[in-house]
Write a structure and sequence with these properties.
Blueprint lengths: L13 H7 L3 H12 L4 E2 L4 E8 L4 E6 L15 E3 L4 E3 L8
Antiparallel strand pairs: 1-2, 2-3, 4-5
């Protein structure tokens, strides 16, 4: 589900994201996508939310109640250049 050709995507590989983001436009698109990503259960075709588990005082995932907006994960996309020892982040208005 969600794949443009109707195929299922079972895993996301960091190497594929890195290759895709070598283009500045793609890097900006990936950064935006990760920032606005949401918890989703493919098997049940529904969004998830984090819930407090009263028994263990831990968070667990549960179904999102009707009428509630899914939480954005706000994943921050950052490159690390091992040779320069620098962190790089594509800006929204960055172009090739």
């Amino acid at each position: 589900k969600g794949h443009p050709c109707g195929r299922k995507v079972n895993k996301v590989f960091p190497e594929e994201m890195a290759l895709f983001s070598l283009s500045a436009r793609n890097a900006c698109q990936l950064r935006q996508s990760l920032r606005h990503a949401k918890l989703y259960n493919v098997h049940e075709a529904s969004f998830l939310t984090r819930c407090e588990d009263a028994k263990s005082s831990c968070q667990r995932l549960g179904s999102l109640p009707k009428g509630k907006d899914p939480e954005e994960l706000k994943i921050d996309f950052v490159f690390y250049d091992i040779q320069c020892k620098e962190y790089l982040q594509p800006e929204e208005d960055y172009t090739d």
